[in-house]
Amino acid sequence: MSAKETYNQLMNDAEMIALATETTAGHTPNVRFVFFMHYADQPNTLYFGTAGSAEKVAELTANPTISFETAPVNFQTVRVTGAHCEQVSDRSTFFKAMDAKYPSFSRFTPEDRENMNVYAATFNEALVGEEKLSF
Predict the structure, then answer these.
(1) Would you say 35 and 53 are in contact if contact means Cβ atoms under 8 Å apart?
(2) Which of 45, 85, 87, 131 could make a disulfide contact with 64, Cβ separation 3.0–4.6 Å?
(3) pLDDT tens per residue, range 17-56
(4) What region holds the Pyridoxamine 5'-phosphate oxidase-like domain (predicted)?
(5) CA atoms of 110 and 67, how far apart (whole Å)
(6) Nearest CA-CA partner of 133 in 87, 71, 76
(7) Rg of the Cα trace of the chain?
(8) Contact status, residue 135 vs residue 82, Cβ threshold 8 Å
(9) In contact, 65 and 82? CB cutoff 8 Å
């Protein structure tokens, strides 16, 4: 399987990413697992949501550059450093996709969803195993 095929499979099948932001105090990584969405027609972008009051919102506002690694699937991961995050205004597509991918996402009430921030993380390169994939 090519690096691109492996990348697409991992981005589709991995349930979570370990998301690394920089603390607002500066230059200290803060890592947490988050659920995410990836769309095949946007190969170098992934989407994730968080409560609007979460610490990572302040971190992303202060420094919108993140790194992440997918949870392993068959001992393989995708790793990205230097992705740029922007808040997404149209969240309905994200919510529908998350509901379909993660049955537990339905636990978020309409009020929870209204208070959720959704981010798009865009990147130019990804490490798939030991192979670098450029977009």
Answers:
(1) no
(2) 85
(3) 999 999 998 789 999 999 999 999 999 999 999 999 999 9
(4) 12-85
(5) 30
(6) 76
(7) 15
(8) no
(9) yes
What does pTM read for this prediction? 0.94
Residue with tokens 């009020």: 111
Stated length of the chain? 135
Which pLDDT tens digit goes with each residue over 60-108?
999 999 999 999 999 999 999 999 999 999 999 999 999 999 999 989 9
Could you give all domains of the chain from N- to C-terminal order, each with its CATH number? 3-127 (2.30.110.10)
In terms of DSSP bridges, do strands 45-51 and 16-22 run parallel, antiparallel, or are they unpaired?
unpaired
Between CA 42 and CA 22 the distance in angstroms is 25
Structure tokens at 112: 């929870």
DSSP 8-state secondary structure symbol assigned to residue 76: B
